Model the fold of this input.
Amino acid sequence: MNVAPDPKSIPQGTLLSPEAGQAAAPATATGVLTVDLDAIVANWRKLEKTAVPAECAGVVKADGYGCGAEQVARALSNAGCKTFFVATLDEARAVRAAVPTTAAIYVLGGFFQNTGDAYAKIDCKPVIGDLNELAEWDVFCRRSGWSGGSAIHIDTGMNRLGMTVTEAQGIVPRINAGDHGITLVMSHLASAELLNNPANARQLTAFREIASLFSGVPASLANSSGIFLGAQFQFDIVRPGCALYGINPTPEADNPMQPVVELKARIVQIRNIERGDTVGYGGTWTARRPTRIAIVAAGYADGYFRAASSNDGTRGAEVVVAGRRCPIAGRISMDLTAVDITDLDRNAVRRGHMVTLIGEGITVDELAHHFGTIGYEVLTSLGRRYARIYKGGNATGEPPAPPPAEPAAAST
Ligand SMILES: *Cc1c(COP(=O)(O)O)cnc(C)c1O
Done:
């Protein structure tokens, strides 16, 4: 086994030149994650158009599905998004710092005891899914005088969060009495990505009935996939998450969304091995010919799941090297992954170049398939070690400076 010579070494402390499709990256970066905020905004506009006249919110929980909640929320806000959903109060705090005070922020993950102050402090709204939560929230509002509002979450068949329909009926007299402080009534679909799943129609019927009793309160049922189930699922506000980030909300059909995330990782070594040599932990992959292997600086600790490994019996994931798909060789390890680049031109790549793990035709959904999971988990597992680059989206979030005031006309 010998290490392939390195034709040109890259000076340290410089940016890689954008030659041969290599994006500029800090010299120290093991990989580069590029989040295209313009693509997120384009996806939001498409969803908004699909759901009009319903309002289109933005779900930015789990750090904006791994893409950066503040950056995403700011870009969506600049595009006109006025309502945001997160899972936790900490996430709400991050989003509040990024969006105008007029934007509404709902916390989906349940109202915890003694947290009313924390909601009031950053002006965000709990999504209340249980009568005990509602009672505690009411006590807090009465004592503090806080009137920032809350959502009522009604379970219509998922049996996760939310009060029962019967419990929700108990709130209706209060709605009719007015001044109830409820700004949204919502439920969540369990199987929206399957167009013909009968659970969708059952949940729709149950939600339509109960929501109609909450007169004057905006209603919300649809996540990303729910938007594509038809207008009757869209109510007053839709709550897309995954589709904003380029995941296919209609897995039974072509993806209507634009890709958002591109992930590249650096080749740290190229080696030539003999026929019969094995690669990686356990020696599970055997070279069937004289083989060139590129060792890439991304592994399962970076969210490149070990489940996508290959062995002598099974192909794993692929990566794009110099414009061509190449297979992974052997087990993905914590920090490194081996790629079989034998079929490439000898001079096509060298040490220091980046290979593409997501992008150039490799979608988040394809990678999820190799990982044995869904695109959501791929995105929310994206590693913290990559350099992150944000494209577009008015990334600074600075509003354009107001024009200078007209000088007052001089009086004569
Ligand atoms: C996560 C979540 C959403 C967004 O779902 P996607 O499938 O990502 O569009 C909407 N509503 C609730 C209650 C959620 O938990």
